[in-house]
Amino acid sequence: MLKLINVCKSYKNNKKAIDNVSFEINKGEIFGFIGHNGAGKTTTIKAVVGIHDFEDGEILINSKSIKKDPIECKKQLAYIPDNPDLYESLTGIQYLNFIANIFNVDKKDREYRIKYYSKQFEIEKDLGDLISSYSHGMKQKLALISAFIHNPNLLVLDEPFVGLDPKASFTLKEIMKDFCDKGGSIFFSTHVLEVAEKICDKIAIIKEGRVLSYGTTDEVKGDGSLENIFMELIDNE
Ligand SMILES: Nc1ncnc2c1ncn2[C@@H]1O[C@H](COP(=O)(O)OP(=O)(O)OP(=O)(O)O)[C@@H](O)[C@H]1O
Q1: 98 C-alpha to ligand 1 centroid (Å)
Q2: Which fold has domain 2-236?
């Protein structure tokens, strides 16, 4: 579903933010991307979703190149950044309909998905209110609901658990598992190692733009905990 082959990106200062990053996410897999602050997670994510160009390598979404076929790739995915900018002067429901319009989602499907996900995240009764009146967590929930509106094949989430209360975090984990059980794929970054260890099929650990470890969760953590392996790799490499 998503394949990165030796992807390199530098910013204007010529320092490589990501260096030869390669990994693959298959249909039905949850993939956790972990690394310290400034490791290159957001840069990789922005390259995957077509926001950042990159000098070398290739990124394929469902076998299509994000460089050569960006529209087809973007139709397949939904991306939620770590600090989503929503249109504050719209109500929640107006925003969700706006996103549904962009992706040409028909009335029946959008109504069903809006109802289903807003109920799951318990913001059904707030959808008529202006986004400017929402708390940080409510905005995060609205952004997450918008990601499911067009039933994407690939969900790309940058730090999706930040700002969510424990109940909403639990709900999101359940929704992520359900989404992948139905054949979707998820690529997400996180600093919450317990969550990664619990829900991910595969994990990559990145440091200073290079992938230090990559494989199934069991392969990456071996006999230890993910936290131990992470600390070891980050301190020693
Ligand atoms: N717009 C930019 N211009 C120049 N350098 C940048 C830019 N964005 C990121 N970088 C640099 O690229 C490297 C990777 O940053 P990135 O934001 O990808 O890290 P991250 O792993 O997402 O970090 P965090 O966990 O703090 O969000 C860092 O050295 C950062 O300073």
Answers
A1: 30
A2: Rossmann fold (3.40.50)
pLDDT, one tens digit per residue, over 167-221 is 999 999 999 999 999 999 999 999 989 999 999 999 999 999 999 999 999 999 8
Q: Are 24 and 3 in contact (CB under 8 A)?
A: yes
* Three-state DSSP state, 152: coil
Buried b / exposed e along 137-165 (16+ C-beta atoms within 10 A): bbbbbbbbbbbbbbebbbbbbbbbbebbe
Give residue 58's identity as a one-letter amino acid code. Answer: E
Domain ranges of the chain: 2-236
Ligand 1 contact, 37 CB (< 6 A): yes
Q: Is 205 left (phi over 0), alpha (psi -120 to 50) or beta?
A: beta
Residue ranges of the chain with per-residue pLDDT less than 70: 237
Pair 206, 44: CB distance under 8 Å: yes
Of 174, 180, 135, nearest to 155 by C-alpha is 180
User: What type of residue sits at position 96?
Assistant: L
Answer for the pair 190, 32: CB distance below 8 angstroms, yes or no. Answer: yes
- Is ipTM over 0.90? yes
Phi, psi of 163 (to 5 degrees): 90, -5
Residue ID of nearest Cα to ligand 1 atom 17 = 42
Beta bridge partners of 18: 9
